[in-house]
Amino acid sequence: MTGSGAPGREAAVALQRAILGPSQLPDGFAVRYQPAVSPLKVGGDWCDTVELRDGRIGIVVGDCVGRGLEAAAVMGQLRSACRALLLQDTGPAQTLTALDRFAATIPGADCSTVFCGVLDPQTGQLIYSSAGHPPALVGLPDGQIQSLDGGGSIPLAVRPEIKRPEAEYVVPGRATLLLYTDGLVERRRQSLDEGMAKAAAALLRRRSDPMDELATGLMDELAPASGYEDDVALLVYRHPGPLEIAVPAEFTQLAPLRATLRSWLQRCGLQQLAVQNVLVAAGEACANAMEHGCGLDPTQHIQVSGTVTADDIELKVADGGQWRQPRPVEDIQRGRGLALMRGLVNRVTVTTGIAGTTVNLQTRITS
């Protein structure tokens, strides 16, 4: 880029990058953002996640009036203030009450809308408050949709003295939460209710997609043929978030590993028989990985990861070795692990390579 405008453009791009949403997201989240004004990378909409000291997560989606750098400058101030308030362990209603007074001092911040929530990723409890923002949508695994209409009040800086309400909701296992700005659902010659209904239908159709595919798919599916006319920000979360465990390769670690896995499977909303089947299959895979992949060397570790959608559970057990096939005479009582696993879950695949061996367990969830 050359010419007198280059330094200003570079400064604008640096500013935009500094005030965009979080660079790293907690497990289970995905975000997408698209400004209406090209070639800017940021506008008046934002989304944010704030990891709090007690393990809960602050989640925020907001929309400032206007477009371009002017709206982005207002957005950056509101986003920073909201993040700072949440880090002081203020609840959503208290956060928006304070943000209300702050917004009243910023030119151009009046009538901004914000959804502010605090999520407990262990229990799915969501405490939230909304300052004139479109309601969050929850896609349930049974194909139903829920709209979070509680905790609502007027946009920011309209009446800064009002006390903000808040509401509570428990996100069920395998449900997907969608937060968004009105650019996703507002269209000319279409009511807001119609736009929200289309977003809800798209969310349900994609409730079994991995999170990144879900976020991208929603943006693509809901985009008008001519492209979005307003800034769009969206945030999606599926409960519970992914499971990630690393444990030393010794059998004494199997009991605590099973306890952690059991808790995660229960949070996924599985029935007890399904929990037990997955636990036994995963326990067999972990024991084999410890013994055959790591030689029961406690300085080595196995990795256990899990993801869930509305319809499926997928677990992966990885080690750093290469399994050997059992010898019929020497291992007459051994080598039955794969058959056992295949009898308990819908699909078992074993992938070996230079980096080690990964056992993939997939099971279909039936209600």
From TrEMBL:
Pfam families with a match to the protein in the record: HATPase_c_2 (PF13581), SpoIIE (PF07228)
Single GO term (MF): phosphatase activity
Gene3D superfamilies given in the database record: Histidine kinase-like ATPase, C-terminal domain (3.30.565.10), PPM-type phosphatase domain (3.60.40.10)
Residue span, PPM-type phosphatase domain: 24-239
SUPFAM superfamilies: ATPase domain of HSP90 chaperone/DNA topoisomerase II/histidine kinase
Native organism: Kribbella antibiotica
Record-given protein name: PPM-type phosphatase domain-containing protein
Keyword terms, alphabetized: Hydrolase
Signal peptide positions on this chain: none
